[in-house]
Amino acid sequence: MSHVVLLGDSVFDNGAYVRPGEPDVLAQVQARLPTGWRCTRNAVDGAITTGLGRQLAYLPDDASHLVLSIGGNDALGSSAILRESARSVAEVMSRVADVRDSFARSFRKALDQVMVYRLPTILCTIYDGRFPDQEEQRQVVAALSVFNDVITREAFLRRLALIDLRLICNQHEDYANPIEPSAKGGAKIATAIVQAVAGDAIFPRSQVYAG
User: Fold this and answer.
1) How many CB atoms neighbour CB 40 within 10 A?
2) What would the pLDDT profile of 77-115 be if each residue is shown by its tens digit?
3) Torsions phi, psi of 199, nearest 5?
4) Which of 97, 42, 50, 98 minimizes the C-alpha distance to 73?
5) 3-state helix, strand, coil in the chain (%, to 5)
6) CATH architecture of 7-198
7) Domain boundaries of the chain, sorted by first residue
8) Torsions phi, psi of 132, nearest 5?
């Protein structure tokens, strides 16, 4: 029997954000998995990359697939940079590079811990969110591209599957608030997870050649 484990943050632990009576991501994944498969959520709302080890400590012994969505809260913790003043574009880019380097170190260390288990692992990008102010939305998307570059590079370097949540949660209705998935968004996330872990042969995929 296959056992899928969801790791990370509130992208998967979204029960507090959906409307009463609506299913969270865990329930929606379980409902879509093939008969006999199980799904467990170790993801915790608010988690950051440095805390992933605590989730792995409770990994079920029979885990067969890992799905990781983390980094959004790391980005949120660095969001003050958007309000800082600077004397030049070069200074801005240097600060952005510092943020990127810090996240890259943290994400790689977290991913190293995951890879110890030698299980099929799927990574997720950080979705764009939906902010009511269009200029803020543009700034957020541009800033997140720095974090997503780290995630995609690590996925390709380690030959891991990647779910691009930027392309999946692409409508306002996919969000319960600017940064949390709604039941509708959760359904789309759950469908992508099941397609990835269950190996749906008819689902179209991109090919990446990385050396």
Assistant:
1) 18
2) 887 777 777 788 888 788 888 899 999 999 999 999 999
3) 70, 50
4) 50
5) 50, 15, 40
6) 3-Layer(aba) Sandwich (3.40)
7) 7-198
8) -65, -30
